């Protein structure tokens, strides 16, 4: 067996150019498969870790996935809002322990702006119940104070005291239509969380109202620029509406009843979702696409394995002489079969190994970029069980595929005997 | 010496008939023997059935009827695996050309039979490379730089000597050479036969040398013409 292994290895080295190509085909197919799988698990874990400790999310009636996406992941927009009095009713409910109001809809240089209050810093948790932590500075105190996420600080080069101008809507650099006369000041920078919080500018609810003074109709009032900061401070800035509410219950056991009661609220239509349940619904939506992607990448691996078969099968004719030499020095037909199967298995094994290395190098390089762009962490997906199983499966499949040319050579070596006519 | 005792013959063929499926018989031999240690020249033009005969002796083919005994083992009665073992342990084979496995070094080729025969490995002992060097030296390949060279870099004459060293490695009882000199120049050829014969004599191996060239017969103990003993009468 050891001798056969050495023979197979030397034979592969001898044909290294064509073997390398086959190996690369296998490696790329394995890298694709593992890449898809890691992106998938990374996305699931990332999304799953974004919100923790919140029992219900309440918003205006919409799809539960939609509510989850805009309230937690800052994806998409709310179609309707909740009135302030309704929010106060919710906050006053006996079964609810705490509430965090959030107001969305503005942006700062591509980063979403979120209006909220002190409760957010106290109750919002991510990962396994980790609270938000300040890297620098403190919470907002003044009307024009802002707290920024770690990515906002890094990408825009902001530090404590940096001024920032919020723009209405979600444009990237909305000059002219912005709120230039309402300059904010950074007072706090949050530690990185690996969640969309890192890419958020947090201000007070009153600040959201303030930057919209003169915008009540949805377009800029010609007189808006004449309103001074002092005038704004003198207005009643209690918000009229908010976008959504995070809520924590006093007793988890009442969650279904509380949700039902909120969903059938009489004064204003509301919708309450359980974050985990909505996530599960989201995954059931994406599961089809995931499965299709995985199926495609498995087929690509199959193509890679077939290319091993092809390369060995096509080499058989020119290796006929070699086989009869091996037979002459005492190799049994089983040795010939074993040699070719081993060659296929070796290509499959090394190809899969290379594929795994490629994926992990790519994750090392592209991981931070993916994290930044999509908030998906690929970092926690170091070499693991999936890689090992893939390695074993591809090696096994290659051995099986190798059995086909091996069988052909086996039959031929029986028929050829010692005399091969060239 | 009892001529008919099986153990004294390296090879004994009796009433052998062989045909490829769907074809007329290629071999019909009443009697053919090679004594232990004997150097026999078997003349046979191409198409005379000599390759088939060698395949039967080497145990990769099985006869229809008749007896083939190799060192007293009746090949026809043995399983394919047992025949393979006898070949691995007791036979060395040299082909006309392209004798060497292209991806192995000279030493790797010479020591190749040892991988398939524990018996021959045991005879050589630990220093297989030393034995390979010694055999190559005996066959006139004394240049040490040759040992790690790719076999495709060798001349045809050198390749045949490497093949001869491989056939002799581990002291087999029978060396079968199938037209090993047909690709060699006359002077190289005579020297090759001389060295092969000498080295076979030293290890006590019987030599079955097959060629179409009758002029080589004088270098051997005995000569047999295959077309005379083969009644199947396949013509070239």
Structure description:
In chain A, strands 1, 3, 4, 7, 8, 9, 10, 11, 13 and 14 form a ten-stranded mixed sheet that branches. In chain A, strands 2-12 form a two-stranded antiparallel sheet. Chain A is an alpha+beta fold and 422 residues long. The longest helix of chain A is centred in the last third of the chain and has 42 residues, at 333-374. In chain A, helix 2 runs antiparallel to helix 10 (275-315) and helix 11 (320-328) packs across helix 13. Chain A has helices at 2-14, 16-48, 64-72, 84-91, 118-123, 150-156, 205-211, 229-234, 255-263, 275-315, 320-328, 333-374, 385-416; strands at residues 56-59, 82-83, 96-108, 111-116, 125-126, 130-131, 134-137, 145-148, 163-168, 178-190, 200-204, 241-242, 244-249, 271-273. Chain A contains 13 helices and 14 strands. Chain A starts with a helix and ends in a 6-residue tail after the last helix. The radius of gyration of chain A is 31 Å and the shape is elongated. Chain B is of the alpha/beta class. Chain B is 35% helix and 22% strand. Chain B contains nine helices and nine strands. In chain B, the strands form two sheets. Chain B has a five-stranded parallel sheet, with helices on both faces. Chain B has a four-stranded antiparallel sheet with strand order 2-1-4-5, covered by helices on one side. In chain B, strand 7 (174-178), helix 8 (186-203) and strand 8 (206-211) form a beta-alpha-beta unit. In chain B, helix 7 runs parallel beside helix 8. Residues 1-6 of chain B have low confidence and may be disordered. Chains A and B meet through helix 1 and helix 11 of A and helix 1, helix 2 and helix 4 of B.
């Amino acid at each position: 067996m050891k001798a056969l292994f050495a023979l197979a290895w030397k034979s592969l080295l001898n044909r290294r150019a064509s073997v390398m190509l086959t190996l690369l085909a296998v490696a790329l197919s394995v890298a694709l498969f593992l890449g898809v799988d890691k992106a998938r698990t990374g996305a699931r874990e990332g999304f799953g870790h974004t919100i923790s400790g919140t029992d219900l999310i309440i918003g205006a009636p919409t799809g539960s996935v939609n509510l989850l996406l805009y309230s937690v992941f800052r994806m998409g927009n709310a179609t309707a809002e909740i009135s302030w009095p309704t929010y106060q009713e919710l906050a006053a409910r006996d079964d609810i322990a705490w509430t965090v109001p959030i107001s969305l809809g503005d942006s700062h240089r591509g980063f979403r702006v979120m209006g909220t209050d002190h409760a957010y810093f106290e109750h919002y948790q991510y990962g396994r119940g980790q609270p938000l932590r300040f890297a620098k500075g403190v919470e907002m105190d003044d009307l024009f104070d802002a707290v920024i996420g770690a990515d906002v600080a890094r990408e825009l080069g902001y530090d404590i005291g940096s001024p920032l101008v919020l723009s209405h809507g979600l444009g990237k650099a909305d000059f002219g239509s912005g709120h230039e006369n309402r300059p904010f000041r950074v007072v706090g920078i949050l530690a990185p969380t690996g969640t969309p919080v890192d890419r958020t500018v947090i201000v007070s609810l009153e600040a959201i109202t303030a930057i919209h003074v003169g915008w009540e109709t949805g377009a800029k009032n010609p007189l808006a620029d004449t309103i001074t900061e002092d005038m704004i401070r003198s207005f009643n800035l209690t918000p009229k509406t908010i976008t959504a509410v995070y809520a924590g219950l006093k007793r988890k056991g009442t969650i279904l009843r509380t949700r039902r009661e909120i969903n059938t609220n009489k004064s204003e239509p509301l919708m309450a979702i359980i974050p985990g349940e909505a996530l599960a619904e989201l995954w059931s939506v994406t599961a089809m696409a995931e499965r299709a992607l995985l199926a495609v990448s498995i087929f690509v691996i199959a193509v890679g394995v077939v290319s091993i078969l092809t390369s060995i099968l096509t080499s058989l004719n020119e290796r006929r002489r070699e086989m009869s030499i091996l037979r002459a020095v005492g190799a049994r037909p089983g040795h010939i079969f074993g040699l070719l199967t081993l060659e296929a298995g070796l290509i499959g094994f090394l190809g899969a190994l290379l594929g795994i290395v490629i994926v992990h190098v790519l994750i090392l390089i592209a991981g931070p970029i993916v994290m930044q762009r999509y908030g998906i962490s690929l970092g926690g997906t170091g070499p693991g069980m999936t890689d090992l199983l893939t390695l074993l499966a591809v090696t096994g499949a290659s051995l099986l595929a190798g059995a086909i040319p091996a069988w052909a050579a086996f039959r031929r070596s029986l028929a050829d005997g010692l005399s091969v006519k060239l | 010496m009892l001529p008919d005792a099986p153990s004294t013959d390296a090879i004994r063929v009796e009433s052998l008939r062989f045909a490829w499926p769907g074809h007329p018989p290629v071999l019909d031999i009443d009697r053919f023997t090679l004594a232990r240690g004997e150097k026999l020249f078997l003349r046979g033009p191409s198409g005379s059935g000599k390759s088939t005969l060698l395949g039967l002796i080497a145990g990769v083919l099985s006869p229809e009827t008749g007896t083939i005994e190799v060192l007293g083992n009746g090949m026809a009665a043995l399983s394919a695996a047992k025949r393979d073992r006898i070949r691995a342990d007791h036979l060395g084979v040299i082909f006309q050309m392209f004798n060497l496995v292209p991806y192995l070094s000279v030493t790797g080729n010479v020591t190749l039979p040892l991988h398939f025969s524990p018996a021959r490995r045991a005879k050589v002992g630990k220093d297989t490379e030393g034995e390979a060097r010694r055999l190559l030296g005996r066959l006139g390949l004394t240049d040490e730089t040759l040992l790690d060279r790719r076999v495709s870099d060798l001349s045809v004459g050198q390749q045949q000597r490497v093949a001869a060293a491989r056939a002799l490695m581990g002291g087999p009882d029978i060396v079968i050479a199938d037209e090993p000199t047909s690709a060699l120049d006359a002077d190289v050829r005579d020297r090759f036969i001389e060295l092969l014969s000498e080295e076979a004599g030293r290890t006590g191996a019987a030599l079955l040398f097959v060629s179409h060239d009758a002029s080589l017969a004088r270098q051997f103990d005995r000569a047999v013409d295959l077309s005379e003993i083969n009644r199947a009468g396949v013509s070239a």
